[in-house]
Amino acid sequence: KALKHKGFQFKLIDYHVDIDSRGTDAVVEVKMTLVDKHENKVVAVGTSPDIIAASIKAFEEGYNILYMKSKT
User: Virtual CA dihedral for 44, 65, 69, 8, nearest 10 degrees?
Assistant: First the structure.
């Protein structure tokens, strides 16, 4: 809701999680695909031992790239 207030609209069209191993040293890789109203598409990746942190990293990367594409 807060992001739409600025006029930049996008959709999350794919979200995928991979875990490389088990145990306390496992690393989570999150891939998400975002698309804006102009059909610009971005696949972003985030990695972390924590799925939430990996998701936030991927979202931040994807959002920033997509936002810059919409400005050109």
Answer: 100
